[in-house]
Amino acid sequence: MKVDFDEILDFFFWGLEVFTRRDCGLILVGLRQCQSQQQAEWMLARLRQRRLIRSEGRGRSARILLTAEGATKVQHFDPVSQWNKPWDGKWRLLAYDLPEQRRAERSALSHALRQRKIGLLQWSLWVWPHDLEPILSELLPGEVGPRSLCGFVCDRLYLCEKEAVVAAAWDFHGVDQAHQRHLDAAPRLIVSLKSAKDLRQVSALARLEREAYSKAFADDPLLPRALWPAGYRGTAVFDTHVRFRSLLQARARELAAAPMSR
Question: 208-229: b or e for each residue (b if 16 or more CB lie within 10 Å)?
Answer without folding.
Answer: bbbebbeebbeebbbbbeebbe
